[in-house]
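Q: How would the structure tokens look for this protein?
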Amino acid sequence: MATQTALIQDEVIMKSGLDNFKVFLAKEELKNSGDEFYWRLAFWKQINEVSPQITFFEKSQNLDSGYLSHSWHSFPAKFYPQLVRALINICKVKSGSVIFDPYAGCGTTLVESKLMGFDAVGTDISKLAILITKVKTNLNISTNTLEKTLRNIRSNFVQKHNDKNIMHEHTDFESHWYNSNNLRQLKILKLEIDNIKYAEIREFFLVALSAALRRIANTKSGQIEVRYKLRNKTENLIRLFENKVYTMISDLITYKQHVPNTAESKTSIYFADASKNKLQNESVDFIITSPPYGNGLDYSKIHKLSIALIFGEEELEHFKNSQTGTLYSNDFNNVSVPFSKTGQIIINKLKRISASRCRSMARYYWDMHSSIKNMYSVLKYGKTCVIIVGGTKIKNLEINNSVVLLEIANYFGFKTKNVLNWCYDKTRRSGLVHKIKGETILILEK
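A: Here is the predicted structure in token form.
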């Protein structure tokens, strides 16, 4: 109790380097709910004479961005869920609003929207991201059914693993990334999951299995992208899998016990390119998204093991070439971007540095041109759009993406309400040393 009192009185900075984003424990808001869980009150300092207040669920005294389903699957460079909440409150999103994230990724925006009671819709070009988001937002799934299914999976796995006569075909890709013993376990467990009748139960276990893959694969530790390192050790896959599933079930139980009833809020996630309109015009009340940065992460390399296992190895090549602003732009030759003066200056400088980088950045700006056009179309008049984007560097050339995206937004008619600096340096999380230096938050109005 003394510790709690001290925390109530003292300001707790969430991460070093965060500017103006603090966490406080407010005595009148603190609600004890067991030894390990409590409510905290967080807010962003005053902006334009508004002090938005937000609440979120946390498991420890330190900042925890992996509460409830947020930690179910790794996804580099994802949103801070607290940041999503802060921006929803700063922009005064009203009850009954529909929130849209065109670059939904692993679903942070959709999860937070659900926890706050908003309807939300997202799109993404990654089938794995769609799967993860579907599972992370399905928080009312039956935990009894999950536990019963897990027991059946374990029983069948042990029986088949002990039967040395059972053989499985494997591809060259699989033989490269897993040693024979770990691969055999993976094949048995994946087949058991595939045989689950109900899609929502099957998808839940697929996400749990995907989250455990790097623990058994021939990969270097501490790397964002999948890089090869032979692993001779035979891992206990079923134990790793069970531990992950039980953690996820525990989070579901916590959600049902402590989070206000949000069953009426609806979330939808679609497999769609953000540059191609999926939704009806003027159908959403608030947009919040963080698009790619043009020189950032290649998710086809980061999630190659999961994509190959769940969706097939042929999906890897398709996804690699379909990412927004992909580096694989050899067939893209339009290096004119008439909608952004700053973007054209950057493109012209890149011509003297690297022809391939010039093409990839031009394609990125054209992709964002189409994406922002679609955001403008689906947003209702008078409503707010928030775009969070970071700057990058290509061979000592500073790429100020926020200025370019702001020019594109103004080109289509968005008004600039505010531009905020989000000072967290993501290089520690993404591994992009010296490439991403903080982010800019563009708050726009249609």
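Residues 1-63, 424-437 have pLDDT under 50 and may be disordered.

Residues 355-378 form the longest helix (24 residues).

Upvote if useful.
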